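2.7 Reproducibility. Because tokenized structures are sensitive to small changes in the input, we list the exact sequence used for ATP-binding cassette domain-containing protein, including any N-terminal residues retained from the expression construct. No trimming or masking was applied before prediction.
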Amino acid sequence: MQILRDLSCFFRAHWKRYTVGIAFLFLIDVLMLWPPRLVGETVDSIRNGSLTTAHLTESVAILLSLGIALYVMRFIWRYLLNGGALILERTLRERLFSHLTRMTPSFYQRRRSGDLMAIATNDIPAVEQTASMGVLTLVDSLFMTVLTLGVMMVTIDWKLTLAALIPMPFLAWSTAYYGRLLHERFYLAQEAFGEMNDHVQQSVSGVRVMRAFVQEDKDVDAFRRVSEKTLERNVNVSRIDALFDPTIAIIIGFSFLIGLGYGTYLVFTSSISLGDLVAFNLYLGLLIWPMFAFGWLINVVQRGSASLKRLSEMLIEEPDVHEANQPVTEAKGNSIEARHFTFTYPGTSKPVLQDLSFSLGEGETLGIVGRTGSGKSTLCRSLLHQYRMQDDALFIGGVAIERLSFDALRAKIGYVPQEHLLFSRTIAENVAFGKPEATEQEVLRALELAEMGRDLMQFSEGLETMVGEKGVTLSGGQKQRISIARALLMDADILILDDSLSAVDARTEERIVHHLRQERAGKTTIITAHRLSAVQHAQLILVLEEGRIVERGTHDELMLLGGWYAEQYRRQQMEQDVVGQE
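Resulting structure tokens (single pass, no recycling of outputs):
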């Protein structure tokens, strides 16, 4: 019962609830022993001819009273134990969600989304079952079995009791064997369920791409294979699960057969009375539930154990990035500096950024350009301290990034990533995500600065327009501009636009850049772009190639240099002129 030991902290925290619930279970088990004895005495009274109306009425009244009392007490223990298990489920879900929000990107590169959903939807309820019905069956089956056997030995006949227990070692062996198989197969079934979840999540997210390439049938076939694998593994679990009840029923049947045969012999030899034999069989009937419960307990515990193992394996993972022991809670300036900064992604050996050194003063704009894969986005993410990196290499306001507290760093930076994530909420709620207290006027102002005001008038519900999951109802440019508005509303000291103007046309881009220069005067801005017109106003432009700075300077300086930047800028200007003539 390792899982119960693993959950001991929770049981200790809610010991009053579990103590009272288990106490009522004990009391119910004790009261359950009364009716068989009462029925046995009544049978002996009938056989002896000594049964009176008063005695029969009293027996019936006692049985009715016991039924009502047992009903009330069963309600109480169910409320307490099941309620405690629901608290555990809520606690585990909160802990899981809190853990997921703390984890760094490398964690999500290792873990599939479908597997995380399977843990939340399947594994946590399995653990909850262990804390409710598992505790019930453990306590009730053990106590009821010991108490019933004790009463049978003391009040009826110890030899008859031992004879009836002969098949029980086979029960212990079979349930242990089935339990081990169930643990292994349920763990594999949960893994398969996670794979199926992940496949569904990817298919739903990429449904438009799938239709564009006419791959629906192939994806359906792939899902069928995944679902068949999940079905097969769950059927393997069910095969073992289905063996519990028949095995227990057969063993209990042998116990009844032995008890009835040997008991009848004892009645004929006058070792016990007929009433004793009736009471003995009723007591033996009381053992049916504990025996079935014991088999069910193994089932529940093994499922819960496998699920808790999967949950624990994830919860013990630590974020790659830790806050400093005594973090700096405020960086007074907005300057950014890199000193021979080199960065390598976890799990790889080749550096993505190599020996970067630059300095950006307060209120200046930094442009980062280069070929695809040159390291532009990696440099932006490094400023967010999302990955573990070398000490004293990146500075904000003269403070090394690793020494800044997470809250201080993230409050200082507004970030618009390449992947524009919008929530299935209204436009207003998406824009005000980082500043929920923002007024409607502030939201509208941010949208105007992001050149989204004209588009907003086209929506019949305006700010209350639902954008759908991940902004499915919007165009790429609209999603980008809403993301920019969300960052602008925060009015952060440092704004990072990671290729966030790629989906808008050149004129819209020009107006957005103009608004940025006006509204963010005195604040630091970092822009990565493939269209060089977005960064030509920057005080410093870095050209990256294979993670190294190969050119640096202002737009005019780089044009005079005549390198990659100048060549690319002239080509883009020619393309723009051609488009303008058309």
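Residues 326 and 403 are 8 Å apart (CA to CA).
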